[in-house]
Structure formats: structure tokens, C-alpha cells
Amino acid sequence: MLPALRDRYAELQARGLRLDLTRGKPSAEQLDLAEPMLSLPGVGVHTDADGVDVRNYGGLDGLPQLRRIFAELLDVPVEQLLALGNASLTLMHDAVAYAFLWGVPGSERPWGREEKVRFVCPVPGYDRHFAVCEAFGIEMVTVPMTPDGPDVEAVAALVADDPTVKGLWVVPTYANPDGAVVSEAVARRLVSMPAAAPDFRIFWDNAYAIHHLTENETKTANAIDLAAEAGNPDRVLMFASTSKVSFAGAGVAFFASSPANVAWYKKHLSVQSIGPDKVNQLRHALFFGTADGVREHMRKHRQILAPKFAAVTRILAERLGDLGVASWTDPQGGYFVSLDVEPGTAARVVQLAKEAGIALTPAGATFPYGQDPEDRNIRLAPSMPPLAEVEVAMDGVATCVLLAAAEKAAHATTP
Ligand code: PMP
């Protein structure tokens, strides 16, 4: 087995590939879908539907015309939704920064004056959430992901007992990387569970709310409403963006929450900025027109993305299906497939792939501090390369998974 796999791997290396499955970027073909936006709003078009001149200062909350479209899509009242800059990651980072400097509504003191601040981090998870925690010195406590979202009993136990637990990261729809969708029951429990910290917050990162890969357009549980019903109206901070709807580098990011949290966010934001880029917001509003316009646009993304995801799961099933050396997710939306290989071999798989010209996300990236305790999880991001390249890359990845597993088995039996 091992010699045959070594031969196959040598053939793979001999092909001199240069393929990249590292990050969840939209492909050029997807970006082209929004190309007409580049000529919007157009010379002479500079007022929004409410008569606001978008060229001028002001409008801290963002353009109402655009907020109305995304309030419908994100299922939040328009007054509780802000349309801001180009990256939701900035808003998440700034929410943490504001909390550290000034506390959030309900804080006894700024988080930065606490002896210790902990966040619950479901794993595998999004590396940039972990990077924000690391930058602020937040201690990360991991809980496992399940197909219905974070292991809610594990989260509830940590949050109930430990007043240093101030936050929880959740990607409620098509999570990065495992594609899990938070069920209504899990959402209810998360917003209603008792918390030892009076200022505990859920960072509800709804990055993939409308990024469906099938006709079944799953609706995200409405955590903001459910939290209010449960008597914890200020528990949820929601983030979203059009990074993977319009342009990844030039979209619009959104923040939604309770009235008290929105007022808190705006109070601090108003010191930083006189208002967001309303020209870009008008460009978005004119291009999409309505919430249905956005939904229609996302179906075009789906047509490009779905065959790539189908290729990933088909090739993994063909090459690894019955061998018991790996398992993987079959996401119904979002940007990633989560691949679990033989424990102790993920870093080796990534190294083998690299040496064969296939770049994968570093092993461990889906865990805090880049450390997967079992060295098992690999995040696959098939959106960027053309379909034919995804197919070649995945066949190569399968060879690397098999070779790493065979090397491990050979090592285990060597006296
Ligand atoms: N959240 C998640 C879960 C993501 O996967 C990504 C993009 N990789 C982001 C946020 C980044 O969003 P934005 O471009 O709005 O900063």
C-alpha cells in the first residue's frame, strides 16, 4: 500500500501543479456578477431615495435605502441595523475594542480592567475570530461544534459558572468551516441560558446568512428577537456584510442588535467617524434594488459555487469513501468544507500537498492559537479556483490524505 501511494504521490509532484485552496475568496467569475456596480451610481446620480446627498458628510447609521433591503434579509428592524464600512471583521474588532475600553451596557467596569476575560470558541472555527481574541489577550475556551451549532450544554455550563466568560463566537448559518446551521432550539438556549457575567455577549457573525448552495434557503434563527423574548435583550451582537455578495474588498458591513447596544455602538463610532461611505452604499442599493434582487443575485453565485462543492465531496467520496481514514462535511451553504483526517496527520497532509504544489489552509488554523490538539482538521476552500482546478487539487489532496495515513500506520507497526 505505502509504495503504491508513494508512486502515486511522486506522479502528483511531477505534474508541477500550482493550485490554491487556502482562503474563502470569491472567484473572478463571481466578482464579475457585480461588475455593473462599477458604473454606479454614475455621474449626476448622488441623492438617495430620501433625498440625501450621498457625497456629503453625515448619516452615521448608513443609508436608509440600503438598510431597508438588508433589514428584510437579516430579519431585523431597520432602526436596529447600521450599514457601515466595507468589513464586518472591523465591526467585530471594534465592538471588542469598545468593550475593553468602556464596557458594554450592563458592564460593571471596562473589560480591559477585568483581571481576566474569556471567550467561548466553538471549534473548528474561524481563525480571524481567534486572532481578535489573541490581540486583546482574551483567553479562549473551546467547545465542540455539532451539526446544530456549538455544543450548547458545554457552552451553558461555562457561561453559567464563570463570570470571566464575557463572550461567545457563533457563525449561525453555514459556519466557517463546518457548514453547521444553528437550530432554533440551540438559538433559544443560547439566548436564554443564565450567565454569570452580567455583560455576557454573543458575537453572532451572520457572514453566510444568504449564501445558500441548494434550493433550500435556510432561514437563520432570529437571535435578536429570541433574546428579547427571553429577557436578555442585549445579549446578541449581530454582524454581516456583502463581502461575498458584491465585492469582497468593497462591500458594505452591517451591525444589528438591541436598541441599547445600537446606541452604545453609535456613541463610540461617532467619535471615530462622521459617517460611512454612502456613495458605495447607494451603489449597492441601486444595483440590488430590493431584497429579492439580492436573493436573485445570490442564486447566480450558487450556480458558480455549487458545482465546485459537489466536486469536492464527490472526489473525497470516490477516493476515500470506504477507507475509514477521513470524514468531511457536505455543506448546504457558505464557503468551506471541513475535512477531518487521521488524528496526528493533518499537518503532514498539508505539507505533502504543499510539496505537490497544492496550497491548503495551514493545519490548526481552525483552532485557537493555530493548535489543533488532535492534528486532525483541515479547512478546504474551493470557491476561488476554476472547477477543473478544484477537481485536480482535490484528487491530489485525497492522495496526500491516504499517503499520510499509510505513513502513520507504517510508523505504528515499525518495531
Ligand atoms: N466572518 C466569517 C465567519 C467569515 O468566514 C468571514 C470571511 N472569511 C468574515 C467574517 C469576514 O467578513 P468581512 O469581509 O465582512 O470582514
Automatic annotation (TrEMBL):
Pfam families: Asp_aminotransf
GO molecular function: L-aspartate:2-oxoglutarate aminotransferase activity
Keyword field: Aminotransferase, Transferase
Matching InterPro entries: AspAT_Ic, PyrdxlP-dep_Trfase, PyrdxlP-dep_Trfase_major, PyrdxlP-dep_Trfase_small
Name listed for the protein in its UniProt record: Aminotransferase
Species of origin: Xylanimonas oleitrophica
